[in-house]
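re: ur msg from earlier - yeah i can do the iron/sulfur cluster complex, just paste it... oh wait u already did. ok heres what im feeding in:
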Amino acid sequence: MIKQKLVLIGNGMAGVRAIEEVLKINPDGFEITIFGTEPYPNYNRIQLSKVLQGGTSVSDITLNEWEWYEDNKIRFYPGESVTSINTKTQSVSTDKGRIESYDQLIIATGSNPFMLPLPGADKEGVKAFRNIKDCEEMIEYSKIYKKAAVIGGGLLGLEAARGLLNLGMEVDVIHIYDYLMERQLDRSAGKLLQAELEKQGMNFILQKNTAEITGRKHVTGLKFSDGSKIKADLVVMAVGIKPNVALAQEAGLPVNRGILVNDYLETEIPNVFAVGECAEHRGIAYGLVAPLYQQGQVLAKRLCGIQDEGYQGSVLSTQLKVSGVDVFSAGKINEDEGTKVYKTYDDWHGIYKKVLIEDGKIAGAVLFGDTKDGNKLFNFIKTGARIEEYLQSAQSVESEENVAASMSDEELICGCNGVTKGSIVEAIKANGLTTFDQVKGCTNASRSCGGCKSLVSDLLACTLGDQYQADQKEAICSCTTLSRDEVLAEIREKGLTHIREVMNVLQWNTDGCSKCKPALNYYLGMIDPLKYQDEREARYVNERMHANIQKDGTYSVVPRMYGGVTTSEDLRKIADVADKYKVGMIKVTGGQRIDLLGVYKEDLPKIWSELDMPSGSAYSKGLRTVKTCVGENYCRFGTQDSIGMGIRLEKKFEGLNTPHKVKMAVSACPRNCAESGIKDVGIVGVEGAWEMYVGGNGGTHLREANLLFKFKNGDELVEMIGAFLQYYRESAKYLERTSAWVERLGIDHIREVLSDEFMVKEYNNRIDEALSVVQDPWKEAINNKNLLRDLYQTVKI
Ligand SMILES: Cc1cc2nc3c(=O)[nH]c(=O)nc-3n(C[C@H](O)[C@H](O)[C@H](O)COP(=O)(O)OP(=O)(O)OC[C@H]3O[C@@H](n4cnc5c(N)ncnc54)[C@H](O)[C@@H]3O)c2cc1C
Ligand code: SF4
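and the outut:
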């Protein structure tokens, strides 16, 4: 059957969710292409506040990894913007000169932050808070500057302000109204919120109109309409958003505030749909994910030809993601002549609760300080329940410990994703789920703002009863309930030899995902290195391609240079290849290697063959580099031959698969010029001996390595490194760095295990076995015609 060409403009939360829904209904129905201005895979924009507030990294908020696109055969063009739509020829053009035709087109271009047209708004240091780049820029600013001003005391402004406080800045929040979050809260709740945030260190300047942003090139402060001024080195504008409709407008699509769509997300032009913040449905352009996800579901059904009543609009609810502050609101928030209110105010504990009633039915709610009734009230608002129902349930809930237990099956647990208690309980029972992550993976609950995490955990506890405590093990992913140890035990006991076999025999509840497939591939290879046939398609993209994919879709090539040493001949070869293939940049890496950046996929095999140098494995979950210092032969302080030892280690362990990347370093004296203290395995030469350090990490989770042993003899050192690496290979979870593994097991325990000479020999036998089958992946790829054709000529990423 000929597949329809489905093109999505905008790789954001709404558009990609619509694609996920399409894939659920008809995984083979469409040839899908996605264009995204931002150079990242689809991420959770909501969680940017958490990234800014610390404790969450950008990589933690990815919703669909690069592999997801590939696994679903989606042609994804990151960092590429659609510049025009031709509705007559049914095609789109991009800023990279690409023209793509479509049978069905989805526009999901989101919103642009609204920037007040103030004098000085174009100065350096004036930012919006919308995407990863904004977030990263604010983090960089906080390292240099101290004073921040946030214009806008709404949800986004307050989340940004909290983040900037966490980054060590002094923060003024300027708001035009006399209380905060006036669109979601009433005056009482707004004032309580202000008091709480003031306690956290935020300063508020209310009822002020900003007239000008002062400074020459760079911002220095704000001037208000009453003539008063404040200083600021960074100004964040969080005053609202406007649907991003320019593209649609230019293509002649009817646009009001947003792109006009009917109940099926159809625009007035055939085969063109709009979803998310850029769309306007029945006069409303929504700015929260819950309605956008509902729209995505309807759109997917429409595209797949499933009859449905269409999208009927949404009731909204809001939560503020600032720790220590519980705020919730939904539906109507301010009373008028037609409404009555049920209100409680506990000034002592700072708890405020207001339920608005219209014709005896619950029409809205505002909660501050205690939001556990939020979901319940939201459900009541949506179903038009009577106030008596809430009052009864509130009484019974208060007498019960567990809110989750008292909820009805129809009640929503996760508002963002529309997941009810009933569907979660059913998923737990049907799939034997035992952990929060499994429920999240299986049902989508808690996959957006994360506000319902504790409710989901409570539901697990009350559904599983005693079993919950007993079964608190971490499954390797949501496709199975089995833990890593259980899977490994089953593979060994049953002699399983292929990923698919493992999944069939151990009754996986899906076809596998980008988390379990690479992990199984590693475990199978680790258990039986001599017989196991690596399943390349189960590897992450970098390892499958044997090159690092960069944000513009090109690759980087890093030839191996043992111990960081090269020759003039190799340098000449590298320079020639760089010229011939017009590589974007030649860069020396932190691991003392040369990185050729900006290489096109089709050129990879030619470059590898012309270089005729081994792969530097700069992409692999394996040994990357052994960094060395100058050492005894040249340095005045060196007491050992660090370069010689580095080369020996790198030659011995190159190509080894490990649970995560492994970096080593050898320094020839405690001055430690090779930074051995922050490596997975770091060696430091001292007078007449080598010290061996393990579990260091210089990356996101900085960790100083622990001294494991000290050796007089280089051979003993190499043997211990072999034993250490093999123990790590056998007992770490896939994707667990040595730093996390050493912390989990404890350095004393590892030292005890490796103090057993017999075990050291055993581990070395097993690692030698694994090393005996290692091949240079670049040579292997160049010599295999099928690989060349499948990977380097036809695969689109
Ligand atoms: C810091 C922050 C916190 C938030 N917190 C919450 C919250 O707690 N709860 C909640 O419900 N919502 C929250 N939101 C709002 C929520 O993130 C948005 O409603 C949602 O992301 C909108 O989804 P979308 O797909 O319509 O737009 P987006 O996610 O913005 O995606 C649109 C994408 O399209 C791309 N694009 C635009 N034009 C083109 C083009 N011509 N070609 C290619 N690509 C293009 C954009 O670069 C963007 O990546 C928050 C937003 C922010 C910024
Ligand atoms: S670590 Fe010591 S021996 Fe090595 S380069 Fe530095 S000072 Fe010289």
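cool cool. The chain has a mean pLDDT of 90. ping me if u need the other ligands too
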